[in-house]
Amino acid sequence: MGDSAMKNGPRRRYQRRAALTTNEHGAFDMATKPLPPQDLLRNRLSYEADTGALIWRERPASNFPASRYPKDRLAKIWNGKFAGGPALASPMANGYLHGALDSVDYLQHRIIWKLITGVDPEHIDHINGVRDDNRLCNLRSVSVSGNMRNRRISSNNQSGVIGVYLEKKTGLWCASIEVDGVVIYLGRHVHIADAQAARVAAEIEHGFISRY
Question: DSSP assignment, residue 86?
Fold first, then answer.
């Protein structure tokens, strides 16, 4: 039902939830972190737009850093294990696919968008709601901030983000989200940015951001 409950509708229930966890911070970071240059992605990855498959390309020895092992040996081992196989395709609990590129974790659909368009998207929407369906026809770039601005925000909201408010008694920033008539409390935070991050992570988890 979302945040905009109708007047005189079903009575709300409340559920307390712990503050943003390390895993949720990680998911939020992956959804917002800068992506590698398009040229690097084209060097490392190939993409099948009709199936959504992201594939590791064979890597030359020059791609590997100097170490106690010869670069050509490292390249042979890596290519034998990964080249031609799925890239960044580990499933997350929330349904998205992710993986590491140069020891940095990224969401697969965001990497695909940058690979094809050269643009760092604010948010990628899976049109059919299936989060591991990364066919190009199922992806579109949308604005998270614009999506939030399009929702009704109370006139006394000081945070500018729905579901985030200042608790006068403690001076802490609180976050919550309503899902199917249940208000889930996302904890108190010293910094407004942490409360906003908790709210955005919950929106991603419950599919709010990927829907209009």
Answer: B
Angle, CA of 95, 99 and 102, to the nearest 5°: 160
How high is the mean pLDDT of the chain?
79
Closest among 206, 96, 205, 203 to 151, alpha carbons compared: 203
Asked whether 120 and 35 are in contact (CB, 8 A), the reply is yes
Residues 70, 77 contacting (CB under 8 angstroms): no
Residue pLDDT, tens place only, 5-43: 434 444 555 555 544 444 444 555 677 789 999 999 999
pTM, rounded to two decimals = 0.59
Return the number of other C-beta atoms located less than 10 Å from residue 188's C-beta: 16
Domain boundaries, the chain: 35-119
Q: Which residue has the tokens 């990964």?
A: 82
Q: How far is CA 106 from CA 29, 101, 152, 210, in A?
A: 9, 7, 32, 18
